[in-house]
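Subject: Sanity check before I submit

Could someone independently write out the structure tokens for this chain? I want to compare against mine line by line before I put it in a report. The sequence has 87 residues.
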Amino acid sequence: MINMQYLNLNYNDKITNEGIKGMIKIQNLNLSDNNKITNEGIKGMINMQNLDLSDNDKITNEGIIGMINMQKLNLYDNNKITNKGIK
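---
Independent answer below. Compare away.
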């Protein structure tokens, strides 16, 4: 599934970093209310355009640095991403 472009893991507690590693073509990822995926799982997803991190406390600035194609980022109720992460 390395060619996957859209993945919704909202409220998912089964898929871990190992499950999404290598999905470098992914462009749309929903990780709202997800507590299994961390920075390690999304590193290298440079094609990311839409990322939902609402109610997510596992992803920090480190995880989104380098996502230069980002067009939409949902940070509702997220206190892990700061000004440093979105610059």
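---
OP: Matches mine. For the report I'm noting this point. The longest strand covers residues 6-8.
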